[in-house]
């Protein structure tokens, strides 16, 4: 025990000596610091290179430690520049990885403290912790990670529903929640690293196009499994939605059909309706959390009512990395003609 402690302290002091920079974080290189190792994931496309994954984990961990001590979540741009400069010496060039997006000063979630996150989220943060707490155990199943991941992806709607900011804000909010959650258990390094691993590797389809280091062979099976699960969940949701919409329609048989044709256009070469994105926002009350009726691998599904009274289900894809999968799913489903299936519409 004493041996382990002294070893830890001496490793620690070696690194504190080497990083004599202005960085206010205590960033330690990831234990398997190996820049040839690009398998750590790209956080659903948040990083634009999955070789940045390990360095990003070190950065997140250091933010978590600081949050534990100071209650602050993100660095401001000056502070971050100092830290990225100091990381350069141990992790290679991290300046074009995408960490730059995680800075304070942009309002909203970027300026939240841990206390703000706790106050805003309350029991939702509790549920997230519960779902993610089981990560890192020897007997952990894949289900644990997907439960944790799904919860975390929902945290984006913590922000005010300002339409333009939403995509970007959502990411910042999710990371603010992640840093807050890990800060309360930051000494449990094994757990924290398992959380990073689970959430960071979420978008393997995208990661595989970003780098080719021959380490993907084993992962492809896992990817296939995810796509399969995603597809099944998606199809189930779609079938349920279709029946629901059909049911509502049969009640409200007096739909103003002509109006729908004047407001929305049909896309070329297909019979899909094109609906202006503005209309989608107003139909779903700005993608309000109260309208959520389901969660899939790629994002949440919202119920909504178009201005002509038509009921729709809107799938909000949070991560472009899953876009292709979703489009394939939609394309194949839209070829099916059946009295019990309604047709798809898509925003302009
Ligand atoms: C780092 O990568 C090299 C090969 O590129 C490998 O031999 C070595 O074991 C790796 N080290 C760690 C800690 O993963
Ligand atoms: C960042 O914070 C430091 C204090 O930690 C402050 O001196 C500096 O002016 C801030 N920079 C910006 C760009 O806000
Ligand atoms: C990564 O993304 C940042 C913006 O977040 C951009 O400035 C940088 O050029 C990108 N790097 C690469 C290699 O695409
Ligand atoms: C949302 O709006 C309220 C008041 O309009 C404001 O107090 C709050 O800080 C805003 N939250 C975010 C995340 O911008
Ligand atoms: C996993 O192990 C922990 C104790 O290490 C136990 O509490 C938990 O019930 C186990 N879970 C499963 C699914 O076996
Ligand atoms: C800081 O971390 C320790 C150990 O992980 C934990 O016991 C403590 O509650 C944390 N403090 C805060 C404010 O999160």
TrEMBL record:
It holds the Pfam family SPARK. One of its GO terms (cellular component) is membrane. ATP binds at residue 315. The keyword Signal applies. Residues 287-348 form the Protein kinase domain. Residues 1-16 form the signal peptide. PROSITE patterns: PROTEIN_KINASE_ATP (PS00107), PROTEIN_KINASE_DOM (PS50011). One of its GO terms (molecular function) is ATP binding. The chain crosses the membrane at residues 225-247. InterPro entries: Kinase-like_dom_sf, LRR_receptor-like_kinase, Prot_kinase_dom, Protein_kinase_ATP_BS, Ser-Thr/Tyr_kinase_cat_dom, SPARK. Keywords: ATP-binding, Membrane, Nucleotide-binding, Signal, Transmembrane, Transmembrane helix. PANTHER family: LEUCINE-RICH REPEAT RECEPTOR PROTEIN KINASE EMS1, PROTEIN KINASE DOMAIN-CONTAINING PROTEIN. This is Protein kinase domain-containing protein. It comes from Nyssa sinensis.
């Amino acid at each position: 025990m004493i041996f382990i402690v002294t070893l830890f302290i001496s490793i620690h002091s070696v690194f504190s000596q080497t990083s004599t920079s202005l960085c206010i974080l205590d960033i330690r290189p990831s234990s398997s610091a190996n820049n040839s190792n690009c398998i750590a994931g790209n956080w659903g496309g948040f990083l634009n290179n999955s070789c940045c994954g390990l360095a990003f984990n070190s950065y997140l961990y250091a933010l978590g430690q600081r949050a534990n001590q100071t209650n602050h979540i993100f660095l401001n741009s000056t502070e971050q520049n100092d830290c990225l400069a100091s990381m350069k010496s141990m992790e290679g060039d991290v300046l074009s990885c995408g960490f730059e997006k995680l800075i304070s000063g942009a309002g909203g979630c970027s300026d939240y403290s841990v206390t703000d996150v706790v106050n805003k989220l309350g029991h939702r943060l509790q549920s997230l912790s519960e779902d993610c707490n089981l990560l890192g155990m020897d007997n952990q199943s894949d289900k644990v990670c997907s439960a944790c991941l799904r919860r975390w992806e929902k945290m984006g709607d913590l922000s005010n529903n300002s339409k333009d900011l939403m995509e970007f804000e959502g990411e910042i909010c999710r990371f603010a929640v992640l840093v807050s959650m890990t800060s309360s258990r930051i000494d449990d390094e094994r757990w924290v690293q398992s959380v990073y691993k689970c959430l960071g590797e979420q978008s393997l389809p995208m990661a595989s196009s970003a780098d080719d280091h021959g380490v993907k062979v084993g992962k492809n099976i896992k990817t296939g499994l995810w796509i399969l699960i995603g597809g099944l969940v998606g199809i189930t949701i779609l079938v349920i939605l279709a029946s629901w919409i059909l049911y509502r329609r049969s009640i409200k048989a007096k739909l103003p059909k002509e109006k729908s044709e004047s407001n929305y256009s049909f896309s070329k070469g297909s019979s899909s309706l094109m609906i202006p994105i503005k209309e989608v926002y107003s139909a779903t009350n700005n993608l309000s959390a109260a309208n959520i009726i389901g969660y899939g691998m790629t994002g949440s599904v919202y119920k909504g009512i178009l201005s002509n009274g038509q009921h729709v289900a809107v799938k909000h894809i949070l991560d472009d990395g899953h876009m292709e999968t979703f489009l394939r799913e939609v394309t194949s489903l839209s070829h099916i003609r059946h009295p019990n299936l309604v047709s798809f519409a898509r925003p302009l």
